[in-house]
């Protein structure tokens, strides 16, 4: 009996560990990638990006920060998720660039759609992923066959889009200052191009997150709650069962909430994952995302650290996935 209990405990532990890596890598097919990348993550891969990412300078810079060219120490020699290739720590040089102070909001994305008639990939596919807790408890049972493999707290629901974030009947009217969600990498890229900008590279994003601090965990330092105050919108409680929302938010928060880092950038940790230009290693269909989200917790997905990284297929969308734009300096 003891051996049986030991075996079951071991299997459960392994399953939970696997799930902790898997839920962040969810793709549109309700699967999680467990394929080990066959190339070691390095500066070479980080510098790779799309060839059409250069933009003109005719974009609105009023809500952007100019980040001067510098060499910074990227990554870490103390990786939390080795399969994410968070290390090694290495010096990376980045040219000057502009970066949005805020994640792109529902209000800003609405203006884009109104002017262009653009339809997101979630709208084209007809569904997107929503976190279980945001679905009324009385309705969850009927979605038991529409849950993500090994991350059953994600429900693939019809009618979920950026303007109906919890499905038909839900609205963003009271969340115009919250980050737009349920947007794919392609959607984010199209928006940035429309406003004359582009997605940031991973190196740009991480340098901006660190804001001149060397090898600190978070955009503000190593302590998660300085002076007992919340500086990021993340999960508090027992994931995925209980979120106490001590930071004030069960889901997304306004894009200008919580303190900015030393560069004047908000939500470089938590709130929503942010797409970057970069391929996940050598796969052009998988894109790096940074920053973690309101669903991240140290016990499960400690990826709201500056060095942390994850990925999704570029057609993926979910209720915790958004973006901000960058711009070139010429």
Automatic annotation (TrEMBL):
Residues 62-326 form the Sulfatase-modifying factor enzyme-like domain. The keyword Signal applies. Residues 1-19 form the signal peptide. Keywords: Signal. One of its GO terms (molecular function) is formylglycine-generating oxidase activity. The keyword Signal applies. SUPFAM superfamilies: C-type lectin-like. One of its GO terms (cellular component) is endoplasmic reticulum. Pfam families: FGE-sulfatase. Belongs to the sulfatase-modifying factor family. This is Sulfatase-modifying factor 1-like Protein.
């Amino acid at each position: 009996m003891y051996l049986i209990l030991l075996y079951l405990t071991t299997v459960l532990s392994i399953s939970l560990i696997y799930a902790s890596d898997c839920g962040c890598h969810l793709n549109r097919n309700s699967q999680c990638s467990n394929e080990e990348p066959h190339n070691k993550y390095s500066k070479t891969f980080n510098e790779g990006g799309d060839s059409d990412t250069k933009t003109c300078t005719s974009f609105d810079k009023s809500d952007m920060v100019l980040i001067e060219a510098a060499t910074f120490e990227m990554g870490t020699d103390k990786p939390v998720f080795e399969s994410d290739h968070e290390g090694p720590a290495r010096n990376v040089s980045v040219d000057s660039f502009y970066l949005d102070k805020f994640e792109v909001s529902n209000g800003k994305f609405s203006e884009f759609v109104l002017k262009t008639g653009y339809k997101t990939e979630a709208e084209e596919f007809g569904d997107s992923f929503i976190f279980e807790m945001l679905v009324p408890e009385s309705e969850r049972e009927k979605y038991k066959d529409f849950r993500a493999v090994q991350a059953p707290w994600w429900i693939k629901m019809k009618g979920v889009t950026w303007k109906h974030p919890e499905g038909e009947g839900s609205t963003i009217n009271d969340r115009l200052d919250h980050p737009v969600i349920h947007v794919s990498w392609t959607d984010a890229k199209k928006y940035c191009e429309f406003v004359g900008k582009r997605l940031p590279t991973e190196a740009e994003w991480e340098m901006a997150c660190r804001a001149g601090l060397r090898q600190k965990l978070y955009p503000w330092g190593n302590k998660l709650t300085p002076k007992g105050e919340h500086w990021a919108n993340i999960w508090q409680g027992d994931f995925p069962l209980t979120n106490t929302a001590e930071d004030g938010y069960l889901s997304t928060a306004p894009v200008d909430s919580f303190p900015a880092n030393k560069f004047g950038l908000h939500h470089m940790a938590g709130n929503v994952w942010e797409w970057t230009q970069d391929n996940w290693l050598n796969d052009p269909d998988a894109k790096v995302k940074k920053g973690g989200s309101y669903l991240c917790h140290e016990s499960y997905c400690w990826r709201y650290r500056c060095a942390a990284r994850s990925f999704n297929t570029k057609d993926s969308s979910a209720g915790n996935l958004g973006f901000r734009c960058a711009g070139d300096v010429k």
